[in-house]
């Protein structure tokens, strides 16, 4: 049974989870490193927003989201729900997969899998 940790600051929870990630022993020769999904999504969102020449405020307006939500997503403080991802992509006129670039899921044994860079 795994321990449950509760943090007041979401950033502390992210740091704690990142510290607990370990490489699958079968994958160590590939030197795969875990990917922080929220941070990677945030990087993709910033890149796509700037490419669309939109401010956080304008993107928020177009996607029916508050500008502070855009900032939290870009900083990796929050993880976007699927409906939010679709709203953001639609607001920028891009396919949703552009916001997921570099995120893949590698199935593990029956107990665990991990996020990592594409192979």
Q: Layout of helices and strands, plus pairs?
A:
Layout: H1 10-20, H2 37-51, H3 56-63, H4 67-75, H5 82-92, E1 104-106, E2 114-116
Antiparallel strand pairs: 1-2
Helix pairs in contact: 2-4, 3-4, 3-5
Structure write-up:
With 119 residues, this protein is mainly alpha-helical. Helices cover 45% and strands 5% of the residues. Strands 1-2 form a two-stranded antiparallel sheet. β1 and β2 form a beta hairpin. The protein starts with 9 loop residues before the first helix and ends with a strand. The N terminus is likely disordered.
Largest sheet: 2 strands, antiparallel
Strand order of the largest sheet: 1-2
Low-confidence segments, given as residue ranges, are 1-7, 18-32
Task: Write down how many β-strands occur, each being a DSSP E stretch of 2 or more residues.
Answer: 2
Number of distinct helices: 5
**Radius of gyration (Å):** 16 Å
Strand content: 5-15%
Structural class: mainly alpha
Mean pLDDT: 79
Distance between the termini: 31 Å
Series of H and E elements: HHHHHEE
Percent in helix? 40-55%
- The coarse silhouette is elongated
Quick recap of the structure?
By secondary structure, the protein is mainly α. The chain has helices at 10-20, 37-51, 56-63, 67-75, 82-92; strands spanning 104-106, 114-116.
Give short descriptive properties of this protein.
119 residues; mainly alpha; two-stranded antiparallel sheet; 5 helices; 2 strands
């Amino acid at each position: 049974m795994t321990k449950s940790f509760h943090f007041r600051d979401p950033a502390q929870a992210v740091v704690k989870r990142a510290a607990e990630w370990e490489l699958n022993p079968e994958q160590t020769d590939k030197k795969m490193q875990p990917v922080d999904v929220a941070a990677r999504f945030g990087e993709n969102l910033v890149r796509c927003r700037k490419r669309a020449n939109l401010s956080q405020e304008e993107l928020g307006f177009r996607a029916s989201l508050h500008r502070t939500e855009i900032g939290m997503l870009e900083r990796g403080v929050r993880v976007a729900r699927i409906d939010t991802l679709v709203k953001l992509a639609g607001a920028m006129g891009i396919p949703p997969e552009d916001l997921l670039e570099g995120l893949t899921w590698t199935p593990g044994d029956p107990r665990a899998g991990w996020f990592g860079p594409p192979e």
